[in-house]
Amino acid sequence: MSDLLLTILLPISSLLISTYGLLLWIIRIFGFVRRLPNSAIILPLAAPGSLGDEAMVCTSIDYLRREGIENISLIDHTNKQTYPVDVIENINLRNFFIYQTWYKFITSFIYAGWKVNQYERFYALGADVMDGYYSELLYF
């Protein structure tokens, strides 16, 4: 039963996500959403707490400012902590990253897409997570 359900739901969810992406593109093209000029939104690897993650966030923001990007926002993973950086907005997407009921996830998904659509650039930060392992000694 679960295989049949996945076989049905995966194409439907893919179609819905693609349709939403197309809708956001149309909204942006026709000017219904005004993008912030010289803007970027950054998705950190995790919530604050790791010195290495904090260094990546701070360095990335400094680099973007040197490149002329003035309006920088940061996506928050939690309600309690933020990175010690000066940004125009800390976007709280905590509900997007946690398990929840399907209707809360849909609401969070629509909100996340809407917020990201307001920026010219999107950066996802990561180091060892991007390549899939921490060191050659521990993983194949």
Whole-Å distance between the termini?
35 Å
Spans of at least 5 consecutive residues with low confidence: none
Tell the overall outline: globular
C-alpha-based Rg, rounded: 18 Å
Strand content: 5-15%
The helix content is: 40-55%
- Major beta sheet, strand line-up: 3-2-1-4
The description of the largest β-sheet is: 4 strands, parallel
Q: Determine the number of helices (DSSP H or I, runs of at least 4 residues).
A: 5
Structural class: alpha/beta
Q: Which whole number gives the mean pLDDT?
A: 78
What pattern of helices and strands is seen along the backbone?
HEHEEHHEH
Count of extended strands: 4
Question: What would you say this structure looks like, in words?
Answer:
The protein is of the alpha/beta class and 140 residues long. It is built from five helices and four strands; from the N terminus they run H-E-H-E-E-H-H-E-H. It has helices at residues 2-29, 51-66, 94-97, 102-116, 128-131, and strands at residues 39-43, 71-76, 89-92, 121-124. The chain has a four-stranded parallel β-sheet, covered by helices on one side. The mean pLDDT is 78.
